[in-house]
Amino acid sequence: MAKERLDKIIASMGRYSRREVKQLVKDGQILVDGKTARSAEEKYDPETAEILVAGQTLGYRRYTYVMLHKPAGVLSATEDGRGETVLDLLPAEYRKMGLFPVGRLDKDTEGLLLLTNDGELAHDLLSPKKHVDKVYYARVSGTLTQEDCDAFAAGMTLDDGLVCREAGLEILRAGEESEALVTLHEGKFHQIKRMLAFCGKPVLYLKRLQMGPLILDKTLAKGEFRLLSGEEIAQIIHGQNIQ
Ligand code: URA
Hints:
The chain has 7 helices and 17 strands. It is of the alpha+beta class. It is elongated and about 70 Å long. Uracil binds next to helix 6.
């Protein structure tokens, strides 16, 4: 990897600001490959340099991948003057890493949200060409029927002209209120709500369960997050879809 300034490398991990790194260098608190760093401007390859900050290994990671169980009421944005965003749910050091949500969930939608600072991966996951499937649990008002499943399977053009590709609708329970799993191969604005409203079954509750190979960790309570495992990162990077 290309060499980068020491203060940039250390600050990118979110724990220290560049100014703090400069002070740590002055205090002789930063060691690189066993030698005390003399200047925050020295350049190193972050993937090979062994950096110790105040006696602790830096543990450099080029990119960070976070799985968040998004609660309702929070915006899938990095900043918003009007309300709490998903970044506000993360600790301060994560907020300095340049993380952003990969795709959006509506404010009232819950469930799996991936945050990363890996722009290339985000672009790939969102690209219509890559066909990354997303699975949602939906509770709707009204009785879902086989006709609704057929309409989803055929694809539909909504009253406002929006063309929706074929999608999956699997009924889990049909009744006055029905439950279903919806699989989308694309991600248009309010797509599930609009498709189900078009079928006359307005959405009461929506939760994303899966995105490509990534499955919402059941041990994460609403608002909780964890880093992706190495295996999960490899799966999303190598573009495996839902099995
Ligand atoms: N479809 C919707 O209608 N809302 C979401 O948040 C995601 C998919």
